[in-house]
Write a structure and sequence with these properties.
This protein has 354 residues and is α/β, with parallel strands linked by helices. It contains 6 helices and 14 strands. The strands form 3 sheets. A 6-stranded mixed beta sheet has the order 10-11-9-12-13-14, sandwiched between helices. The chain has a 5-stranded mixed beta sheet with strand order 3-1-8-5-6, with no helix packed on it. Bound molecules: guanosine-5'-triphosphate and magnesium ion.
Length: 354
């Protein structure tokens, strides 16, 4: 299924039905009192998070969502029937904002979380309720309230603790395959990954975190080069970025340091706060460097990049260096607070790394 992480929709809640003004008319009962019932409530519209949905594509096709109006009240004490509410199912991680004012309305963070997005109008009051000792034959009634209408912007920002950042072919998908049960496609051509993949990483039996693999980024992504940079939105909610670098790139004139600088520049162009986020440098494909040169290779890159943060040397493909990385990430995340709760069934989870 096509991955879509942005959509704009309209929601129209139902209007309330009008109250009725009516009088009881029956044989042998002269001047029967008021018997106009209330109008029914208009249908409301709710958004519900569903972990079985992972794209907003449905909302590209169905843009207008309308709940029914409540029925009008009637004579003979009949109340109008309320309209059924509508529930719109969306992926966990969907952020809903008012498209006109930009005001945030909801952030669906957990499976089954339900939020009211447009309230149905209340039903009007029938003349039944206006009867009093001084007015035995009231003709008043009220009309139903209008339902709320909004134009909404839906944005999916996946929920993960850790995000992977890097050029195409850096080995991002290989890494997520090696540390989690997620199995995104891996291939030796650029832009293999076209949408985010989430993997649950088990540090041990009861400690885990969620890692997000996103498409590769290249120089000029902010101007639309490659797949553009809109996928970076999926890193905005993470607490740690892993910047993967291919230490032995194949292409001509390749320089891992130049590649790294290009990625960092793109990150900054996308969003200053993403640029400020904690970032670790992951030197991948170390297996391609002769053992005697590995330390020097790593030191050179760190020096030329003037990198101050943590550095890990890895071979995502063989798994070498991965367990140490996983333990460091787990410790770091725990020092910040609880990690993303896992919604998958336990049998879908990867075996713990030892
Ligand atoms: N030798 C070696 N090859 C690796 C390693 N990690 C990944 N590769 C290879 O590098 C190529 C690209 O790997 P991917 O994991 O698809 O790279 P990616 O960063 O996800 O690439 P995109 O999805 O295109 O952005 C594949 O042929 C992998 O087998 C590694 O540690 N050592
Ligand atoms: Mg990939």
């Amino acid at each position: 299924m096509k991955f879509i992480d942005e959509a704009q929709i309209e929601v129209h809640a139902g209007n309330g039905g009008d109250g009725a003004a009516s009088f009881r008319r029956e044989k042998f009962i002269p001047r029967g009192g008021p018997d106009g019932g209330d109008g029914g409530r208009g249908g409301s519209i709710f958004a519900i998070a569903d972990c079985n949905i992972n794209t907003l594509i449905d909302y590209r096709y169905a843009r207008i969502h309308r709940a029914k109006n409540g029925e009008n009240g009637q004579g003979a004490d009949c109340y109008g029937r309320g309209a059924v509410d509508i529930e719109l199912r969306m992926p966990v991680g969907t952020v809903i904002t008012d498209a006109e004012t930009g005001e945030p309305l909801a952030d669906l963070q957990t499976h089954q979380q339900k939020t009211l997005i447009a309230r149905g109008g209340k039903g009007g009051i029938g003349n039944l309720h206006f009867k009093s000792s001084t007015n035995r034959a009231p003709r008043q009634f009220t009309r139903g309230e209008e339902g709320e209408n909004f134009k909404l912007k839906l944005e999916l920002k996946v929920l993960a603790d850790v995000g992977l950042l890097g050029m195409p072919n850096a080995g991002k998908s290989t890494l997520i395959r090696s540390v989690s049960a997620a199995k995104p496609k891996v291939a030796d051509y650029p832009f293999t990954t076209l949408h985010p993949n989430l993997g649950v990483v088990r540090a041990n039996m009861n400690r885990s975190f969620v890692i997000a693999d996103i498409p590769g980024l290249i120089e000029g992504a902010s101007e639309g080069a490659g797949l553009g940079h809109q996928f970076l939105r999926h890193l905005t909610r993470t607490r740690l970025l892993l910047h993967l670098l291919d230490v032995a790139p194949m292409h001509e004139g390749a320089d891992p340091v130049k590649d790294a600088r290009a990625i960092i520049a793109e990150l900054r162009k996308y969003d200053e706060s993403l640029y400020e986020k904690t970032r670790w440098l992951i030197l991948n494909k170390m297996d391609l460097v002769p053992e005697a040169l590995r330390e020097k290779t790593a030191k050179d890159i760190v020096r030329r990049l003037r990198w101050k943060g943590p550095v890990f040397c890895l071979s995502a493909i063989s798994g070498q260096g991965c367990p140490a990385l996983v333990q460091s990430i787990m410790q770091y995340l725990e020092s910040l607070g609880p990690t993303t709760p896992v919604t998958e069934e336990p049998e879908n989870l990867a075996a713990p790394l030892t």
